[in-house]
TrEMBL record:
InterPro entries recorded: GH, Glyco_hydro_5, Glycosyl_hydrolase_5
Originating organism: Myriangium duriaei CBS 260.36
Ranges of Low complexity composition bias in the record: 167-176
Keyword Cell membrane in record: yes
Residue ranges of the region described as Disordered: 19-50, 167-193
Gene3D superfamilies found in the cross-reference section: Glycosidases
Entry keyword annotation includes Hydrolase: yes
Protein name, as recorded: glucan 1,3-beta-glucosidase
Amino acid sequence: MEGLAALNAINEKLGVNRGHNRVREEVDNEELLRREERRRRKEEKRRRRIEEEAYERGPDVYDEYLSKERREEIDYRSTREKKGRVVSGQKLERGRDSVYDEKSQATSKWWQLKMRGGGTSSDGSYINSEELAQRKKKRRRNILILLGLIVLILVIAIPVGIAVSKNSGKSSSNSGATDSNGKPSNSNLDGIDQSSIPASAKGTWLDPFSWYDTNDFNVTFTDVMVGGLPIMGLNSTWDDSTRANSNVPPLNEAWKYGTMPVRGINVGGWLVLEPVITPSFFNSFKSSQGVIDEYTLTSTLGTGSAKSTIEQHYSSFLTEQDFVNIQAAGFDHVRIPFGYWTIVTYQGDPYVSQVAWRYLLRAIEWARKYGIRVNLDLHGAPGSQNGWNHSGRQGDIGWLNGTDGALNANRTLQIHDQLSKFFAQDRYKNIIAFYGLLNEPRMTSLDTTSVLQWTTEAATLVQKNGINCTIVFGDGFMGLDNWQGKLQSVPNMLLDVHQYVIFNTQQLTLNHQAKTTFACGGWTAQAKRSMDTTTGFGPTIFAEWSQADTDCAPYLNNVGVGSRWQGTLNMVDTPGGGQNGSVLTPTCPTANNPRCMCDGANASPSAYSAAYKQWLLQFAVAQMESFEYGWGWFYWTWKTESAAQWSYKDGLAAGILPGKVWERDFKCASGAPDYASLGLPEYY
């Protein structure tokens, strides 16, 4: 009310009553003048009068306001077309200002246009100086009235806007934004002309209108490729000044690997499906359909259904909020597994081809935003390097083995040729800390010499293409001591070891106290020997481990088979299996007396006893301590649908994993307690 009173006082002082009506009256008068001018357009002196009037009178304030939106749209499109995009070379390397600041802003501001007076009389003759002065006075008065109204509106609107802003959350990112149906809003496509996508690109990985999710992608079209891989979706600027937490250096400062431990997390089951992580993909099929891995799943679904199903999973399973939570838990590195179909597919492949590529790039940018360094992990090679479901296809090994073994090994080199050229770009120099050649090649079933030769060739290739970060290769399950003296001619290499107590029946039968003691003693000794080049390879990292003490999680050992713990692991009829892989005798510490059960391990963490929670936490901390005698570790994995002992996210919520990865309430030097005396059963 005070604002309205002030406005009325201004109007009275100017000799104007009822300001709102006065504005309408003046606008109506101006409309009559414009009509009169149009009627006289055929007169002989039309052009001169119009030009002089435009110069002397200038645009009307109200007209300027109405035309603002259209003018800004034109300026925006023009500026966007001229704006530099991500390209290879000098233009690519120009920016480091902001990861999420690509879209150009309109440069013409309607409120900054200079207002000019003057014009002609209604009969077409030139107005005299007195009339001109009166007209200028009238226009100044109109401007003041309009400004008064604007001020009044702002007085009301600004507090409301602030209140709404405070209630809308802290993040300004559109990551994960969804519509009323739960689908990605893709609001960044608004204003993009679909005809701007060339016909040759429509429906390909370059066409954002064919993407299920465009949030946090740059959707301005570009067909620039680096290493034969598109930069489409990336912004041209990035910020490497971020850090994961105060204990570690920012991305643009060196990390002292081998001295400062890596404390990382895997994001498994995302770009490569794993039945134990996302069992919902496999539960709905009958066993007779044989859907046991990503290969058989996509083959059964068919091309169209597979694409929509898999891309929705890519979009929703791992979001920016996960990176927020990963950082909050204290992690400083993230390992991102992906399959070869992220890059290319071959004749007969049913995989969803190349869709995962943009999601991989988006995840890297999210990691950058939160200062988390990245370990690139090629998890599945053409032909399968181990025959396990997490390679994409369960069954026979077709990589460096079988009819197409050499072909598939060469295909994998071609994939690395592309990947290494792409990730050698300047924008990835600080964020990509580890470049993984291949996850878990099963060297116990492959020719060792052939694998070593391939590893040397692959490492040499990617380093020649400009990869300067550490190159990671898998231990192949040969035993750490057997790596002493191998691959010493290739610089900057890191041995990757995965440690579990549940896939080896000798370790599985250890009781809880013995498992903790083994983690403290046995794995610490292994780490020390492996780090010493006189007894092992040298630089060693432990890129997979978990707190699970049984192999009871559904589908952990493949779809449709049981567990070693209960003695129900029958591999005879499963692809790639056989009698030698079966375990038909219960192998829990009690030797089935009392009976070995999976109910306790598979229960919700809320149902765990206090003693079980204590053991799970201390077993995890013991492993962290041991693996930090090497270069550090990556926990497997960040999240699952239901297997809590394989989900750091769930374990964190349940209090059975450290709230911050460096917070340790247990030390190996203090010794493992007798958990049985605390009431923890050994059979569940």
